[in-house]
């Protein structure tokens, strides 16, 4: 069986090329095109300082229909004022011309350094060039995925097939993200929010913007309102549950496009089945972001159960995952459970530590408000693996949640002290 990829769903073509924005001579312009009648939904950063392509993207997704995504890496086009917005619209116009669609059917994305104007001469030439190479092979999918990378060390992709009666539907996706990762995205519903992009001073914001971007494709036929409704909980349970440094980017974007050339997905049962498959893809992508965190040596999976509700569980898991002390302990294979319990207590949600149990890699280290005797050397060895599990069982309710993160190493500091490209 052929390996699934971003373009395995029918009705999509893509490509990625180098246009000269990045200094690494790797793809930095990407274009993804789909069929007439395709439906779409998207989630964007909730940071009040948001990039020009986010502003334009919110407007263009309001109709629930897209025909193309055009993107660049190496420059975030954030904090660039009216010219930045004009440049984002220009990207859409050029892509629309080449794809024979309307400009408002194109969603733009950018990732890279904040506070620098796009080199539009290179960008325009790049878009015209990439349009010549559109195709639906795995190589085309890989080139598109490479075009969104910045400090990432590898491409990130996932795909599944699901059957609806005799017909098969494919859901696939690619994403990027390694630093400036603490997504808090909201699905755009019926138009852009009434928030204007900041045009003020940007000196304190200049620097890196690694960003989380995700592009998902499916050949299912789903009405735009249904697509939007199911995408919101998917984003909350996947991309919004990954954190590297808890820094929400100006450019975070996740887009789901349904070409409509495959099986129709209607009715609660089929929509739930589709949503479960979409969750699987997005959670895999979120995990891959954590695994590729800047300077990371391991993934840390934080699971909380028995919280007041699911939102409380995620808040506790996120508080643990974002603690620099916890992340440093994970890097040093140090079973310093006090850092974990105290971080959970800072989440701002109901939590009774006297009724909680904490386990590290399956070894109980804290229970009922007291330490539990364990072999520190043995647990330290258990922590020295590529994936570490931190499980906190509470008795405050029935909520559960998982957050994916990574350890904090010296390399993270080096990368972020040196990065300005």
From TrEMBL:
Q: Which residues form the active site?
A: 211
Q: What is this protein called?
A: Arginine biosynthesis bifunctional protein ArgJ
Quaternary arrangement and interactors, per the entry?
Heterotetramer of two alpha and two beta chains.
List the keywords (alphabetical): Acyltransferase, Amino-acid biosynthesis, Arginine biosynthesis, Autocatalytic cleavage, Cytoplasm, Multifunctional enzyme, Transferase
Which residue positions does UniProt flag as site: Involved in the stabilization of negative charge on the oxyanion by the formation of the oxyanion hole?
Answer: 111-112
Species the sequence originates in? Humisphaera borealis
Q: Which biological processes are named by the entry's GO terms?
A: L-arginine biosynthetic process; ornithine biosynthetic process
**What does the record give as EC number?**
2.3.1.35, 2.3.1.1
Q: Might you report a single GO cellular component term?
A: cytoplasm
State the similarity comment. Answer: Belongs to the ArgJ family.
Give the reaction(s) catalysed. Answer: L-glutamate + acetyl-CoA = N-acetyl-L-glutamate + CoA + H(+); N(2)-acetyl-L-ornithine + L-glutamate = N-acetyl-L-glutamate + L-ornithine
Q: Which PANTHER family match?
A: ARGININE BIOSYNTHESIS BIFUNCTIONAL PROTEIN ARGJ (PTHR23100), ARGININE BIOSYNTHESIS BIFUNCTIONAL PROTEIN ARGJ, MITOCHONDRIAL (PTHR23100:SF0)
User: A Pfam family for this UniProt protein?
Assistant: ArgJ
**Ranges annotated as spanning the membrane:** none
Q: Top EC class per UniProt?
A: transferase
Provide the primary localization.
cytoplasm
Q: Which InterPro entries match?
A: Arg_biosynth_ArgJ, ArgJ-like_dom_sf, ArgJ_beta_C
Q: Which residues does substrate bind?
A: 150, 176, 211, 294, 416, 421
The subcellular localization recorded is:
Cytoplasm
Record-linked CDD domains: OAT
Q: Tell me the pathway.
A: Amino-acid biosynthesis; L-arginine biosynthesis; N(2)-acetyl-L-ornithine from L-glutamate: step 1/4; Amino-acid biosynthesis; L-arginine biosynthesis; L-ornithine and N-acetyl-L-glutamate from L-glutamate and N(2)-acetyl-L-ornithine (cyclic): step 1/1
Q: Where is this site: Cleavage?
A: 210-211
In its UniProt record, a GO molecular function of this protein is: L-glutamate N-acetyltransferase activity, acting on acetyl-L-ornithine as donor
Its annotated function is as follows:
Catalyzes two activities which are involved in the cyclic version of arginine biosynthesis: the synthesis of N-acetylglutamate from glutamate and acetyl-CoA as the acetyl donor, and of ornithine by transacetylation between N(2)-acetylornithine and glutamate.
